[in-house]
Amino acid sequence: MTDPKRVCADARGRRAVVIGGGLAGMLTAAALRGLADEIRVIESDELPDGPLPRRGLPQAGHVHLLWSGGVRAAEELLPGVTRRWLAAGARRIPVPTGMVGLSPQGWYRRWRRETHFLIACSRDLLDAVVREQVLEDPAVRVVQRTRAEGLVGTATRVTGVRVRGADGVRRVLEADFVVDASGRGSRAPRFLEELGVDSPAGRTVDLGLVYASRVFRAPPGAEEFPVVSVQADARAARPGRSATILPIEGGRWLVTNSGTRGGEPTDRAEDFEGFARSLRHPVVGELISHLEPLGGVTINRSTRNRRQFFEKVKEWPERFVVIGDAVATFNPVYGHGMSVAAQSAAALREHASEHGLAAPRLARRVQYSVARRVSVAWDLATGQDVFFPGVRGGSPSRTDRMLARYVDRLVKTSTGSFLMTKEFTDVTSLEAPLRTLVRPRVLLAAAVGPRHPPLGGPPLTEEELAVVTAAGAGRAGG
Predict the structure, then answer these.
(1) Preceding amide of 220 cis, omega within 30
(2) Where is the FAD-binding domain (predicted)?
(3) Could you read off the pLDDT of 296-334 as tens digits, one per residue?
(4) What CATH topology corresponds to 4-56+124-204+306-382?
(5) Distance (Å, rounded) from C-alpha 415 to C-alpha 455?
(6) Global pTM?
């Protein structure tokens, strides 16, 4: 175990700079507490006071899932953060008990025993709670309306960040450690090139995916309503379409429709319910038909899978790390981006606590560790997405097809096997590596197949259906 006294002693006189004040940046700042006595977060926008939209996060209005693997990592960095989320109105959804999901191979069963969980709330609330807790530490300060323009140092060591404030004044912010957590718009590859470091190789898998979301008033009595999801089938040789209902704070449901190239949803309110009804099962459209919309439709097209392989750069500078969406972005339908960011920040904390921020090759060690966290989510996303028609950036190889057949078998077995549901969700919740899916007992379960017959429809209870239909009757009567 790390000696806290040694960590605090090593922190004296050290400054760490984090580029980006979003979720990844705040979790990174949390990871650096006690390792540096001064932590500066550089944020190009002005951060909101409370759970309000942030200018630099256009995808905030869509469904975001924080899986149990990510929650546990966040708790390591910010003890008590889950309690704070729940106190602010978020829900802890038990999995599979609290989920109604149609996979490409059939409906998942809502087994009575919880194996995993997720936090359900708006992205604005989730970010605000983390931001508030991090900034309670006087060592952490956000420098707002300030843009990072480059790194200071050499190809072998980073010593600071060049910044420009809202007044146009440029200055150098010296640092003993720098982390780029600036998200999709990160300029880390360019910054590295300016220091003489090779730019990383990258890959993009683009489905042309479009997200359209709308908020509805939740029906009275729906406080324990499950997450409802209809997934697309990547092997159906047609554009993928899906929809999700996520209960969020304030007695609301956040509903997101999505469609790949050729099957995109529109931003027209009159099309929203019809799109949800047109899916492989109309349950999402049927449920929201009873509800009152609380606003228009929000659209987003920044959804492609993109990865920068920083860990493969031959010569990596000391004291510089890249984390979060600056490393990889994923198809949002899998709900992995926030969990990967939390796990990556926890990896930074683990290595830096053990070795100290000034340790030789610490940055390289952390970047490798970040890559391992990214790889599970990346392989899960792209392993499915390359099969959708119209995908750009990759086509399925023979190995991809072989693995896809096995995954299809696992999913089919999961629809009727508690054991397989748990094993498969261990991976999709980012609590276990992909290799666990080839353990002997998993292989045996996949060979045997589902232990129960397929469900004929969504496993909603009579009470849950009654709550929704009563809301519809109330609206009609009003």
Answers:
(1) no
(2) 16-349
(3) 999 998 788 999 999 999 999 999 999 999 999 998 878
(4) FAD/NAD(P)-binding domain (3.50.50)
(5) 8
(6) 0.94
Are 260 and 240 spatial neighbours (Cβ–Cβ below 8 Å)?
yes
Contact between 4 and 108 under an 8 Å Cβ cutoff? The reply is no
pLDDT of residue 399: 84
Q: How many CA atoms lie within 13 A of 365 on its CB side?
A: 17
Q: Which two tokens stand for residue 44?
A: 């190009």
Domain spans, the chain: 4-56+124-204+306-382, 95-114+210-300+397-478
Contact 216, 252 (CB under 8 A): yes
Spatial separation of the C-alpha atoms in residues 392 and 394, rounded to whole Å: 6
Distance between start and end Cα atoms, the chain: 63
pLDDT score of 4: 42
Q: Which of 53, 124, 137, 133 is nearest to 89 (CA)?
A: 124
User: How is residue 352 written in tokens?
Assistant: 């830096």
Q: Are 390 and 404 in contact (CB under 8 A)?
A: no
Q: Contact at 8 Å (CB) between 9 and 353?
A: no
Using 70 as the pLDDT threshold, list the residues of the chain that sit under it.
1-12, 56, 58, 472-478
Alpha-helical regions (H) of 213-310: 269-277, 283-288
Judge whether 263 and 238 are in contact, CB under 8 Å. yes
pLDDT at 396: 85
Residue partners of 344: CB distance under 8 A and separation at least 6: 24, 323, 324, 327, 369, 370, 373, 374
What pLDDT sits at residue 81?
99
Q: In angstroms, rounded to a whole number, what is the distance separating the alpha carbons of residues 324 and 371?
A: 10
Please spell the DSSP secondary structure of 121-165, one letter per residue.
S-HHHHHHHHHHHHTTSTTEEEE-SEEEEEEEE-SSBEEEEEEEE
Over its C-alpha atoms, the chain yields an Rg (Å, rounded) of 23
Distance CA 258, CA 210 (A): 6
Across 244-275, b (16+ Cβ under 10 Å) vs e yields bbbbbbeebbbbbbbbbbebbbbeeeeebbeb
Helix (H, G, I), strand (E, B) or coil at 218: coil
pLDDT at position 471 is: 79
At 5 the pLDDT is 41
Spatial separation of the C-alpha atoms in residues 342 and 338, rounded to whole Å: 6
Quote the distance between the C-alpha of residue 286 and its chain's center. Answer: 28
Q: What's the rounded Cα separation, in Å, for the pair 278 and 20?
A: 39
